[in-house]
Amino acid sequence: MECGSVTRNMVTLGCLATDFTPSSLTYSWSKSGAALTDFIQYPPTMTGNYYTGISQISVNRNDWDNGDDFKCVAAHSTGNVEATLTKPIVDCQLPTVSLSVSSADEQETVFACLAKDFSPKNYEVKWFRNGKEVTSKISNTPVKEESKTPNGTLYSAASFLTVSSSDWTEENTNFTCQFKCGSESKGPIHVSSSVTYQVPVQ
């Protein structure tokens, strides 16, 4: 089980053994077959007639996020038990994405991209002008809890892009907002919305 992060770059994993006797128990950890030695093993505690043991290890967050396998083995006189821990992959629910454009003034144009009803909470928004990514003058709102469903919580968020009006008011110029689910998701993870400039009819 994932117990939480020690720092932003580390994740603490826990291994729990229950209902064993006698109390002698030895833990070992490995990552993708390579032994790990920097772990903690706590003294067993007794509840009723049986013992419970816990071991914890801190691992690199990148290894955890990349899906590396971490194996915990609890060795006991009655036999060994092992458990493999891997970061779970969750289904992505893509949002409804809408894109609007407004002129802040004669010099600047603002694009607003609203993503509504997505899950999980982690996401990424990218902006493109005529297929080329734009990375400057972007601001994002905090993620907002939209609603709760039997399958979990749905969220909404918005991203804003400000550009020079001259970068927008060229005929057939296209701006695209691309929403992407977090890296831990599976299934379809992209959805986009685009707007194309058309010269006003005189």
Secondary-structure map with pairings?
Elements: E1 2-4, E2 10-20, E3 26-31, E4 34-36, E5 39-41, E6 45-47, E7 50-60, H1 61-65, E8 70-76, E9 79-85, E10 90-91, E11 96-103, E12 108-118, E13 123-129, E14 132-134, E15 138-140, E16 144-149, E17 152-164, H2 165-168, E18 174-181, E19 185-186, E20 190-196
Written account of the structure:
The protein is mainly beta. It folds into 2 domains: 10-85, Immunoglobulins (Immunoglobulin-like), CATH 2.60.40; 96-198, Immunoglobulins (Immunoglobulin-like, Sandwich). Helices cover 4% and strands 61% of the residues. It contains 2 helices and 20 strands. It has helices at 61-65, 165-168, and strands at residues 2-4, 10-20, 26-31, 34-36, 39-41, 45-47, 50-60, 70-76, 79-85, 90-91, 96-103, 108-118, 123-129, 132-134, 138-140, 144-149, 152-164, 174-181, 185-186, 190-196. The strands form 5 sheets. Strands 1, 2, 5, 6 and 7 form a 5-stranded antiparallel beta sheet that branches. Strand 1 (2-4) and strand 2 (10-20) form a beta hairpin. The radius of gyration is 25 Å and the shape is elongated. The N and C termini lie far apart (65 Å). 17% of the residues are buried.
Mean pLDDT: 88
Structural shape: elongated
CATH superfamily of the largest domain: Immunoglobulins
Number of helices: 2
The percentage of residues in β strands lies in: over 45%
Report the span from N to C terminus.
Answer: 65 Å
